[in-house]
Amino acid sequence: MNKSFFLGAAVAVGAVMLIPGVAVALGRAGRPIVRAGMRTGAVAFDEFRKAGAEAYESMEDIIAEVREEMEAERAEGETEPEAAGTNAG
Q: How many helices (H) and strands (E) does the chain have?
């Protein structure tokens, strides 16, 4: 075995021994970043939910208007034959 193998093995063992300490340090430092990201995501979710509710309400209004128009046309169509029949006689 050559010298570079032992050097690489020593570096690997040292890195493995440092991982818990590094993980804790990164966890402490990263927590505010994670919290900020979660907060941003929650705010975005609320805004998208509000926008979706408004779009849904608008769509319901349009559908109601179309149904009213269809009902008016249907009622108009039912009264026209009667009016035409009385004028012809």
A: 1, 0
